[in-house]
Amino acid sequence: MVEPKKRAPRRKKIEKFEEESIELEDAGARDVSAHTVNIRHGGVRDIKKADTVTVTQGGVNAVDAKNVTVNQGGIVQVEADSVTVKQGGIGRVEASEVSVTQGAVMLAQAENAQLSQGTALAVTGTNIGVEMGGAQYMLARESIHVQQGGAMVMAAPRIQVENGGAMFLFAREVHGDVRVMFDRRSALVFGIAAGVVIGLLTLAKRK
After folding, report:
1. How do beta strands 19-25 and 59-71 pair?
2. pTM of the prediction?
3. SS3 state at 4
């Protein structure tokens, strides 16, 4: 009897960076790639690839990294696994985990997004949590949980709101104390608004 061939173990992908670490303080650079990038009072055009990026009172145009932290700084566009913003701002972020504290984001696309005393134009993802903050549009595939906050448009299968509200709300399950300007009987109006929002987000992503 011929024994079946055993599969060779899959090799782990080894990330290669141009440098191990880059420290920028009161300085600027164009494009960089490093395992660790720390920017303080400085600026970089693009961080092409990195494992960990920390921006403190600085600015970056675009970042492609695993973990990104922004403290009182700003980034135009971010693609990462995890993004944390504290008293800073990001134009567009796409990540698995996004946390914004006392900061602002224009467009956030994440599996799990958390706003704490933060604001956003639009947040889309699987689960969205808001505490003392809000967004114009919140669209979630599973749930939205809001404490002292709200949105103009809020849509998810399950929505729980404590001391908050929305102009348009659409959900299969709604829990908590939520103030809604348009109830379920306005689903047609909401559908038109949500369709326009999704179309704009799709167009923005393509660009």
Report:
1. unpaired
2. 0.76
3. coil
